[in-house]
Amino acid sequence: MITRGSLWLPLAILLLLAALSFWIERSVQLTEISSEASQTDPEGIMENFEALRTDPAGKPHYRLSAKRLKHYSGSKRTELESPHFVQLDAEAGDVSAVSRQATVSPDGQEVDLAGDVVVERAARPGQSAMTLRTQQLLVFPERELLRAPGAVDILDDALTMRAGAMEYDAGQRVIKLTGRVHARYVSRQD
């Protein structure tokens, strides 16, 4: 005949194993959650900053400001909130770009401006101010290339254009408009 005491020992061992199993599973889940969080948390945050880049002689080339900058060490990606970029060029005229947000690739070779992107070229003698509006603008600084994959509006004193997409090669000074392109040119009477 089996006594009651001998039934409790296997049951106690099973309960101990179940509790241990639960503790191990819980520990693994918490480790996964904390490692995922560390990969998505920014390494550094700057708020309300302005930076100026100059050449070796101290001549300013461009100015960048933003409401917030976040840098992620895992992906080496940088995100900007409300960025404002101004390229300073006395000969060609200043060019500024603003958007709701921007992402800079890890190698700095691509900048993705998104949300109400406005690029403005200042007026200068013989050339009126020009404004470009789009929802997304990809900038490739080293290649001197701008690409708007969606609808784009370009306006100045004499010209109004709307296109399905745009690519601008600054080195060759060539604008390629694709999709449905509508242009209206008004001759200036000087």
Can I get a quick summary?
This protein is an alpha+beta fold and 190 residues long.
Structure summary, number of beta strands: 14
Residue ranges: pLDDT <50 for 5 or more in a row? none
Helix content: 10-25%
Element order: H for helix, E for strand: HEEEEEEEEEEEEEE
Average pLDDT: 80
Structural class: alpha+beta
Report strand %: over 45%
CA-to-CA gap between the ends?
117 Å
Strand order of the largest sheet: 2-3-6-7-5-4
Rg, Cα atoms, Å? 29 Å
Summed up, the helix count is 1
Descriptive report:
- With 190 residues, the chain is α+β, with helices and mostly antiparallel strands.
- It has one helix at residues 4-40, and strands at residues 44-54, 60-71, 78-81, 84-87, 95-98, 101-104, 111-121, 130-140, 145-148, 152-156, 159-163, 165-169, 174-178, 182-185.
- The longest helix is centred in the N-terminal third of the chain and has 37 residues, at 4-40.
- The mean pLDDT is 80.
Topology:
Elements (H helix, E strand, L loop, with lengths): L3 H37 L3 E11 L5 E12 L6 E4 L2 E4 L7 E4 L2 E4 L6 E11 L8 E11 L4 E4 L3 E5 L2 E5 L1 E5 L4 E5 L3 E4 L5
Antiparallel strand pairs: 1-2, 2-3, 2-4, 3-6, 4-5, 5-7, 6-7, 7-8, 8-9, 8-10, 9-12, 10-11, 11-14, 12-13
